[in-house]
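seq:
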Amino acid sequence: MLIKASKILIIISIILDLVSSFLDKIIYNTGYMIKLDDHQTRLLRKLRLELGPEVLGALADPEVVEILLNPDSSLWIEKRGDMTRIGAMTPVNAKHLLGTIAASLDTTINREQPLLEGELLLDGSRVAGSLPPITTNPTFAIRKKASAVFSLEQYVARGAMNADQRETLQAALKARLNILVAGGTSSGKTTLANAVIHGISELCRQDRLIVIEDTAEIQCQAENALLLRANSTVDLLRLLRLSLRYRPDRILVGEVRGPEALALLKAWNTGHPGGVATVHANSAAAALVRLEQLVAEAGLTEAQALIGEAVDLVVYMDKHRGVRRVREVIEVRGWEPAGYSINRRSELCL
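struct:
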């Protein structure tokens, strides 16, 4: 009996070793399991070594949002809205790490090209890095991908949204209204956008969604969806124009930050309603002004009427004392000589 049990344990051990070896060549990236080749596997192992236990621990902590390296070699994390120092990383280590990340992205970072932007091979987190002479020592910022997609009901349960706001959003999704999610840096715009897109996949299952972004942050669970990714040679504007040929019911943009805003508004206005996009702004009303500025980059200086017609709802996310909440939801009814016609649907009292 003991011999048989021993044999079973040996077999289990062999199976676990094989599974471990296989999983070492598998990573989670942009919602898919991707098998790595030998070169990528070596890069992944090198990346884990150079990240070190502090950064790896922070990446594994679901409550950590960002990981930052300052020029003085100090490592910081944002967790539960607070910044905490967790250790240090030498300039030599940081330089090697950025080189490994660059290699995984099939690019380079050096004194002549001292900037790096992309995604971490390990888990798809967004990473930005810099070398001297841009900074005195190597630095980086890692923005983690959302560990889960929350529903609008969960936002209400957590106190991040009130019931009226949820009902307004759900009604807007069913009515195919265009929704702009606004907020400052690290306010939770993308997480809320993911919740809104989750609502679309639940309430409007028949719709075909086209998701356009330059970093892998949107998590789309719809059955009929196409994800398009911008890069250094194909920008968001070109992808927006391309998306119209893919028979979209709804066009979703991770973040609008340039002249592509004009193409998006035109698409929303010409047979593709029910879209979602995010934008940096300090209030719901300021989000409309921000769109004006972005559209002006495309050469259209009088865009208020177009914005008033294309944008139906603005949801503003705010981080107050470390807590991310939906601060206000406004309905945009159009543009008049006196300004935008706005109906303030609901506001969360802090």
